[in-house]
Amino acid sequence: MPEPLPPPLLVNSDKTILRFPYPFPEDSYMYSFNVEPHTPSARAESMRAAFDIDEHYLTECRQKAGILAEDPRRCLILPHMEQAQWDFLELAMTSLAADYPHHFTLERNGGHWRWINRLLDIDHAFTFGDPAGFDEAPFRFIARQMQGDMVLLDQRDNTLWMDAGMVTGAADWSLKFDVGMSFHQWHAPVPKAHELGVFDRALRYLLMLRHDHPVRRLNWTMTVNPWLDTSAENYTIWGPDRATVTLDDVADRVHLRVELQALFRLPRSHALAFSIRTYLLPLRDIVRVPKWRARLHRVLRDLDPALSTYKGLDLYRQVTVKFLSRYDDGTPLSPGIQHDATGLV
C-alpha cells in the first residue's frame, strides 16, 4: 500500500489569518492554568462565539466524516453518559443557532425540535430526549457538525473522568486510550506542570465551575504539514514529517497549532463539555504579522528543553528559530495576544 501523501498547502484568507487565536501574550512560555471566562473577546474574532466556525468548516466536517467512517471508535460514549449527550446537544444547537443564525436554525415547540444546518444541508425533526429520533447517538449527530473535537467529562469521586467524546484531530493522543481515565491520569505525560501544581489547581477550579459560566484557555504545539489528525494511532503517517524540515521549506510546512479549549457545565447531568477547536497557521502566514513573528521567534528560541521534547519540536525547532530570527530585530513588543494595528504585511 502506498504511503499517504501529505495534505495540500493550507490556504488562509487575510481575514482568517487575523482572527487566529495567537497563544503568546509574552515573549516567553511556561505551562500554566491560563483560564479566563469564555465570553466574547475583542482580542480575536475566533473568541466571540461559544463554538467557532470559519471558512474551513465544510472541509473540516468532510475530513471528520471520513475519519469516522474509517474508524468509528473515534467517537466513544460510555453508557452512563446518556443524559450528558442530550445536555450537549442542547448546548451546541442553541449556541450555533444564536451565534450563526444565517447558517443554523433551531425550532422548539415543547419537546418537538427541528434542527436546520444549511451548510451541510441537514433538516432534522426529533423529540428531545428520545433516541428513536436519530439513526446515531445524539452526541455523535451534533458533534460531527462542529469543527474541532468534543469531549464529555463526568464528575464523580472528586475528580473528572473522560467518559465520552468525538476526537478526530488529536495532538498526539488517543481517545481510545484515554476514555475512562481521570483528570490526573490523562494529563500524566505533561512535564513541569505537575511539579508546579498546575493540574491540582486546575481540577479544584473546574470542579466548582458553574452553569452559564463557561471558561476557556489556549494551548499550543506545532505540526509539520497541515495535518489536523495527528492522533497517536496515526503516528506512522504524520510523525516522520518532523525529521524532514529544511530552511527552504520551513515556511510552508511548519504550522503553529493552537487549541481554543472551552469548558461548559451541563445543567442536568452536571458533566462538563470540553471543546477543543484546533487552528493551524503556517509560518508563511505568521511572518505577515510583525508582532506574532517576532514573539514566536523568542518563545521558541528560549523554550524549556523539556517542553520542546514533550511537544515534539526537537527535530525542527532550531531550523524554525533560524528562519524566524530574520524577522526579529529585538524591538520591544506590546503585551497581549492581539496583533498590532499594522495588521498584515
Low-confidence stretches: none
Q: Please compute the radius of gyration using only Cα atoms.
A: 20 Å
Strand content: 15-25%
Oligomer: single chain
Strand order of the largest sheet: 1-8-9-10-6-7-2
Protein architecture, described:
The protein has 13 helices and ten strands. The chain is an alpha+beta fold.
Please outline what is shown here.
The protein has 345 residues and is an alpha+beta fold. It contains 13 helices and ten strands.
Structure keywords:
29% helix; 345 residues; alpha+beta; three-stranded antiparallel sheet; seven-stranded antiparallel sheet
How is the topology of this model organized?
Elements: H1 14-18, E1 36-37, H2 57-70, E2 75-77, H3 82-99, E3 104-109, E4 112-117, E5 122-127, H4 138-143, E6 149-156, E7 159-166, H5 175-178, H6 183-186, H7 198-207, E8 215-224, H8 235-238, H9 250-253, E9 254-265, E10 272-282, H10 283-286, H11 290-301, H12 305-310, H13 317-325
Antiparallel strand pairs: 1-8, 2-7, 3-4, 4-5, 6-7, 6-10, 8-9, 9-10
Helix pairs in contact: 11-13
